[in-house]
User: What shape does this take?
Amino acid sequence: MQAVILVGGEGTRLRPLTYGTPKPMVPLFGVPFLERTLSRLKSAGVDHVILAAGYLPDAITRHLGDGARLGLKLTYVIEKEPLGTAGAIKNVEQYISGPFFVLNGDVLTSLDLRKMIEVHEKRGGLGVLHSIRVEDPSAFGCVVRDETGRVKSFIEKPPRETAPTDEINAGTYLLDPAVLEAIPKDTNVSIERATFPKLLAEGKALYAYLSDDYWLDVGRPDQYLKAHRDVLDRQLALDPLADPEMHRGAFIFAGAIGAPSNIEPPVFIGENVEIAPNAMVGPYTVLGDGTRIGPNVVVRGSVLWDGVHIEEGAHVTDVILASRVRVGKLAQVGAGTVAGHDQHVEPGTVVAPDSRLPATQAEQAAVAPT
Assistant: This one.
């Protein structure tokens, strides 16, 4: 079984985190998000994954290599220019040999992929689309289906009061290779806005698989924080992961017995973390590998990547700090702040809520258009 993961986007909504880190490599509890997605695919019987990449691809290839460590075969196809969701799939056509999954690279979900295979085998047609119900479909693409699950139409981002359904396209597909015939080559095309409606207009059959699985787009800082909070709240269990590298660190869930008195669960603590005895950490906090928390520091509701250093007396609440950020003595970092790699918050500084502290100029220059 094969899968295509769309990982070509620049992750602009997550900047400054993605100046030096491509969006698929943004960590989820210390492990790149893409790596966790690959684990889900392997558990569903996928053995060959094609990564449609474009932005900072070297960071992905260096970390994942040929996929052998994960028990997968990985093929990388690098876009010279953005091709859209359908164009990116067409661009990997030479590697497709049968029905294949397509996944958006920024969706966190508990979807059972094997059930989608069962639906496709039962219904036939050119593909199965995962759909979920949401309270407000106006920010998404609605999927209108009949009682058999056959898709009748797609309505993109309808006003809430006129939406024909609360069922939306959740960004995971199982497609027959024949779908590729409907996509022009070397063209920027959206599969949601162009290819799927074209297939319906031609009378081709697509089916929706509606589920109530956990689903979250982690492409924005607030949603990225929510993903960590939801796992810590046990709303979503991370897949069992065979690779020991993906088990590093420790969860301390609410109700844990024997947690240190200066840690308020739930929290996640990576390897080689130093926490001063009189610092306060948690709840809903993630400390990446090599993080150092100084005396009288307070860290709450935050995700800290590897190598972050919070100096004496600083307060950090509901923020995201990328790798090697240093927060100076007695500084206060307001809720909603996102700091890019290697930023230094000077001692005594008060950072206003919802601030964006960009990555270093060198990292920004490395990804700037030439």
Summary: The chain has seven helices and 30 strands. The chain has two domains: 2-219, 248-367.
